[in-house]
Hints:
Elements: E1 4-6, H1 17-28, H2 36-41, H3 44-54, H4 66-77, E2 82-89, H5 90-100, E3 105-109, H6 118-128, E4 134-137, H7 143-146, E5 151-155, H8 159-166, E6 170-175, H9 182-189, H10 202-206, H11 213-240, H12 242-246, H13 255-258, H14 263-281, H15 286-304, H16 312-332, H17 338-365, H18 381-403, H19 406-411, H20 415-418, H21 421-437, H22 445-451, H23 453-471
Parallel strand pairs: 1-2, 1-4, 2-3, 4-5, 5-6
Helix pairs in contact: 1-3, 11-14, 11-15, 11-16, 15-16, 16-17, 17-18, 17-21, 18-21, 21-23
Amino acid sequence: xxxxxxxxxxxxxxxxxxxxxxxxxxxxxxxxxxxxxxxxxxxxxxxxxxxxxxxxxxxxxxxxxxxxxxxxxxxxxxxxxxxxxxxxxxxxxxxxxxxxxxxxxxxxxxxxxxxxxxxxxxxxxxxxxxxxxxxxxxxxxxxxxxxxxxxxxxxxxxxxxxxxxxxxxxxxxxxxxxxxxxxxxxxxxxxxxxxxxxxxxxxxxxxxxxxxxxxxxxxxxxxxxxxxxxxxxxxxxxxxxxxxxxxxxxxxxxxxxxxxxxxxxxxxxxxxxxxxxxxxxxxxxxxxxxxxxxxxxxxxxxxxxxxxxxxxxxxxxxxxxxxxxxxxxxxxxxxxxxxxxxxxxxxxxxxxxxxxxxxxxxxxxxxxxxxxxxxxxxxxxxxxxxxxxxxxxxxxxxxxxxxxxxxxxxxxxxxxxxxxxxxxxxxxxxxxxxxxxxxxxxxxxxxxxxxxxxxxxxxxxxxxxxxxxxxxxxx
Length: 475
């Protein structure tokens, strides 16, 4: 029986190792990016070899095409030889082949020859003869290989490529690509996280300026701008966090980590979204633009380094939440009060600790001692819980002190009614931590809160007492 030759990138795995190697270099050794033009000038094989040697990867966590693997195992059981033939560097191909234990031979780029397209076709014809193998591929570059193959197995491609392959040899089998619909786009943008940007409206509500139409227009533009900026950062974060996400029980399903969406699409989409964010933000005003750029800079530093530092990551998350409120004040032209900023920092620090505590609990449940890509051990969970509860209580204390200040007495028609916000907030903080302790918390407490009936009821109660305090209540 003729051997089956299998491509790697986009075929056996739902990603491209050249793209991932470049992303790892950008994250871990950004100065080496300056050397890429020099490596590329010496040839693609040199580029691939140097990128592969700069960083390490875990072959066990890659997003393999499980349907294809099942079929290949059946073919091997039937007695057919399997050859892994890839344009990726040999230092990448061999660990993958060793992990799978499925291939009899590995053919790959070696720093001298780039085994792609016509080069791959020539190498296979020299090794097995014309029509002496079946080939499994996924791209138009594989048409050169199918021209010399007996049969084609088309993977992760559209009908057009299958028709083109069919003109060159018989198409034995097709493995269709996963559909990229609106659901995938929403998950790439993390549109559900845009709810956090509702914090931009907090200064307007706190200043009792909800009927100021001019402020609303600026804030709506600011909301769109901030949401696009946030999506830019989420995409960059997902691209730099591929290994960590794949090691996570739930995050492994994210579009880039799972290979549902190719990494190159994220590389293209991120700067486009950021440019659109800046274009819209420029219509709001220079003060807002300043805070938008500060937010973007902090999130970039967080994605590159700060999220790996114990406690610093949670403090940074709290700052990022608070920056949304500051940016909202700038968009509406409203000054920020010390009380609002202090309350925000303590509250969001507590929620950041909730997020990290939930991750530690989940890792502990799966028998892991450390969180991949973070500086925490699962044994840190009790300390994180204590810090989180304490900062949550500190937020409630700041709220109570604010409600007893002269500003509240002058601003509210019935300031004693507003005191009802204190027990409501204390209950909600306690409830959030109780759910985290019970293992019911999602990775993000904000996402949990908007789906949780108790949290929604607490939010409604908080709004009611604030409204009654503002307008008064005649008995």
